[in-house]
Amino acid sequence: MAKVELKKPIVEEIAAAVKDAQSVVLVDYRGLTVEQDTQLRKQLREAGITYKVYKNTMMNFAFKGTDCEALLPYLEGPSAVAISTEDATAPARVLCKFAKTADALEVKGGIVEGIAYDADGIKEVAKIPSREELLSKLLGSIQSPITNFARVMNQLAEKGGASECEAPAKAEEAPAEAEAAPVEEAAPAEAEAAPAEEAPAAE
User: How far is CA 147 from the centre of its chain?
Assistant: First the structure.
């Protein structure tokens, strides 16, 4: 009874950790040196990933009734679990990248957004860019239109605004009206000259 009581908090801890997880990946860490294990934990921690070693029996109890129940067949031999509640691809990406330089680390399988994957599937998930990379690409794709818009706005600001850009057009229309005025004033002068020419004919 005492053993059961001791196990219960651990099972509850695992169950709580995987409950809201975006992804859960199981690995076999046998063969890793102390230095490699320390480096792996550091990289996972920096990526916001929880990484712990639990007994398979504990994980077996905790996984039952959850999406992680699909991982029960992989609970053989020493197992460590990497859990992320924010970035669904982070555990697969960090673990698979680390495994390329540490052959002893073996990815067993995992759950990513409720879908179960074997080792090969997790390796494919690892190829998906991180959320930050995807956002960076998205911002890059819309950066050009924004830059062009900002350039136009700066040009308008330097000229004093859109109203100032219309001023030259109005200024060009003004001389045309001014030139038309003398023509109209000349007409009365010609009309006054006409009677003076007809006066000799009256004699």
Answer: 18
